[in-house]
Design a protein that fits this description.
Elements (H helix, E strand, L loop, with lengths): L10 H16 L4 H16 L14
Helix pairs in contact: 1-2
């Protein structure tokens, strides 16, 4: 079951999450675990939600 509202994500982020989810399922993870990993990965990469194109990235 999907957790949270995903409407603030771009189409690209949704495609990335779906791709990651499918890869995780193929690796033997449950649907729920695969989805959680996918969205956590997208959030870590992009900081979640749509970006306005302003500001800067934190380079650590």
């Amino acid at each position: 079951m999907s957790r949270g509202d995903k409407s603030s994500y771009s189409d690209k982020q949704k495609r990335q999450a779906k791709h990651i989810e499918h890869r995780q399922e193929a690796a033997g993870k449950s649907k729920e675990t695969a989805e959680r990993i996918a969205w956590a990965t997208v959030n870590k990469q992009d900081g979640g939600g749509k970006k306005s194109g302003h500001g800067h990235r934190d380079h650590r």
